[in-house]
Every structure is written in C-alpha cells, then in structure tokens.
Amino acid sequence: MLSSHAVPRAIAAAFLLLAAAGAPAQDAARPYPSRPITLVVPYAAGGSSDTRARQVAQKIAGYLGQPVVVDNKPGANGNIGTEFVARAAPDGHVIGVGNLAPMAVNKSLYPKLPFNPAELVPVALLERGPLVLVVNAASPYRSVADLIAAGKASPGKLSYASAGNGGSFHLAGELFEDMAGVTMVHVPYRGGAPATNDLLAGVVDMMFDMLPASAPHLKAANPRMRALALASSKRNPMLPDVPTFAELGFRGMEVSNWFGIVAPRGTPPAIVARLNEAINRALKEPDLADKIVSQGNEVGGGDPQSFGAFVEAESQRWSKLIREKNIKPD
Length: 330
Prior knowledge:
Helix content is 44%, strand content 19%.
C-alpha cells in the first residue's frame, strides 16, 4: 500500500512520464520548423562549402522563422559530417551540405563507407564550381591541342597536379587522359595550394583547378597562369575568351565541384518541399546569386528530383572511372 504522501508523488511522476512520452508527438504536430535547425557542413570552417552554407543559412532562417545554426564536422573527405546527417532524426531539424565526394565518389573510392549516400534525401542543389585546365604562363602549351600533341609524341612525359587522389582535380585529369588518348603522370599533393605552387614553379605541366583559386593568377597584370579550357557546358563570364571542352570536341568533359542541401532518409516530403522552397528563394536573392557568380561558379536551384537525378548521374559516372582506373585514396 502507498502512504498518503506517496500517492500524490506517484501521480505526479505518472503525469511527468505521460508528458515526456507525448513531447515528440506534440513536436511533430507543430508547424515545421518547431525549433532551431542545424546545418551540418562536412568540412572545416572557412572553405567554400562552409562560406556558402552560412550565407544560405542566414537567408532561409528568415524565411522559415527559426535560427539555422551551421555545425562543422570535418574529416575523412566529408564522410564524418555526412554520416552524422544520415543518422539524424528525419524531422528536418538536422540537415547537411552534400558534396561531390561523400555523395558521389567516396562509396567507390573507399573499401568501406560508414553510410550509404542513398540514406540521404536530396533537397536542393546550391551551386556548381566548374574546373578549368591551366598551365604555367611560361608554358609552351598554348592550347589543348598543343598538350595532346605533346602527350602523343612523348607518352608519359606530361604531368598534372591534383589536390589528392580521388579528388575532382584528379578525376578530371583521368577523364581528360581517356578522352584525349594520352598517357600522363599524376602528381598528387596534400591540397590545392601546394599543387598550385608547383605548377607556378614549373614542376608540373598542368592541372585542373577551381576558378576562384586560379582567377587571381589568370587575371593579374602579369598573369602567372594560362587557361586552356573550361570543364563546363558553357563559357564563363569570368573567362569569356576561354573555350569549353565541348567546343573543342570533348563531349562529356564537364567536371565541377558541386554541393547542395540533403536531409536524412525518411524526412517527410512536405518538410523537404518547405526547405526546397526556402533555398530556391534564397538563391534568387541578387546579393547571394552575385556572391556565387562573381567567383566563377554557377547558381544551383531546382526541385529535389532534379538534384537527386544529378547526384545519381554523377555517382554512376565517377564510380565507373574509379573502377576502370583502379583509383585508390591517399
């Protein structure tokens, strides 16, 4: 038997248990979002993904009526942060930046991935950063045709730098090698900066690079680089005189560092649609669009289905190349 004092305490405890059990249901019943949203960036602060995520977060917070807090979870080429998003509750309050590597490359590059990209729901593409093929300004190669001619005349003599095995610069080099029918030497570095330094020093012949990184060297009063071709479907306003690979006859030589917003699998379609609407609205804001375009990148946008189809196409494309070339991570 409970004492007269114990009965009220037991009733109070029961009410607390019932309240706790009902909390998730109450939260689910509230209009989304019902609390601050965490936007996970799978790379360190200060990079392009982080910078853009913070700009987008500020915009969509105003549209959604809740703060959007950026949380950097770097490591393992984007795998750590992306896995965190994949394991989060599918209620739209934890979303992430989905990049080329963890969404379309790493599953073929690493023998064991701690998550499956299929566990993530595409929300919206944010931007694409097309790569540009560059050489040292003092290089004798003034066109892609010059490079190919030299490569065929002396197989294995041409060298190209990258920011590491399996990254977009490396994959672009391997793809170009196949399309051009030449054999080159891949020289991987631990990051884009040391790769660029050796290109400028004449240690390597060429490299694929991001436009924002190469632009200062290309557009300086005394340029230290020369751009030969753009790995994009169209010419870029930043380099209007530089042809695309497609113009030179290389169909399919389109390579970009891209990223968008993803959510855990199981996130309700209505929440995905709400987020997609907010992101598209943000990307149409002139100040944000200008920040993207002024760096030579392309504004994303579109519906979740289009982003999902793009991710799948990228995954199939790079998986095939990695398999055929037997590419291994660093």
